[in-house]
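We close this part of the discussion by returning to an individual protein. Part of our work consisted of pairing the sequence of a single chain with a tokenised description of its backbone. What the numbers capture is local backbone geometry rather than side-chain detail. The amino acid sequence and the backbone structure tokens for this protein are reproduced below.
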Amino acid sequence: MGQAGLGADELPAAVVNGAALRRATPLRLASMLGLTYRTDGRPVDLVVVGAGPAGLAAAVYAASEGLDTILLDRTGLGGQAAKSARIENYLGFPQGVSGEHLTRLTMVQALKFGVRIYSPCAVAGVDLTDDRRPAVLLDNGARIDCRAVITATGADYRRLDVPRWSAFEQTGCIRYAATELDVRGYENQPVTVVGGANSAGQAALSLAGHGATVNLVLRGTDLGARMSSYLTDRIRAHPLIRLHTGSAVRELTGDDRLTSVVVERPDGRQDRLESGALFCFIGARPMSGWLSGIATDENGFVRTDGGLPFQTSAARVFAVGDLRAGSIKRVATAVGEGASAVSSVHAALAGD
């Protein structure tokens, strides 16, 4: 700090090419490193917004098939998948692969085929005035005119406002699905499921079916308010499921791994429940707010019922991955959608 002439009030800081960047932010640092979008006059066939598995796949396949492609992401490459410590059911990786490593490999592929990647690069909206020339509008006022857009901005799973949530999420102790892979390893262990709709009920029964002792925590007082009766009947009858209605998780404890959760009762009393994992099913928010003029369902997920697969209500805008209404929330599915959407892009551009 002394050599760079930096004071404590100027942190965080970075030194780039000998110059000190005081009170650095990711966006300012990216700008200094040339990672933010700058127009270079080259024509653009396709802009892919969102660099999770679906967006990365779309960019790789589009560029490999001759489309001049730009890939943008607000924060960084990989999306939610990049947070996975190990993905064990992705084809070609019998020993499993971390989301970070898979993202890195895919980024190298994208660069190999000539994809221009800009991140962090926040998108503010899309201009659909010319139905044959959509334009992506950036937060900094820049505009990228193109021939087609694939949007893959995903959905942000709702999280509880509890200290250390992110830390336990990164170690895999907090999960947003209860597939066979997710529940594996928790047989005969105590776990917590949070949520009051069908997905939470199904997760609780699946975990209990594998021998886990399940604490099902929901804010509402009536289990049947948002859950189907076939589930509520089985949950109430299952000896390994303990129901906590009118309750909320207030604390997570443990070192690197989750060991217990603190639940607050309707009367304010707090109890500590032993728990090796927390399965959270309180909904997801689609990242679709920037897509004004594009049809969505009642929950904000983008509808893709146009004439071509993955086509939205705008002829040259396509949606893939978790952002899309009716999508299956899996990495392999997202990759397939991103790759498949490129075929629809070619079909839409065929008349140019």
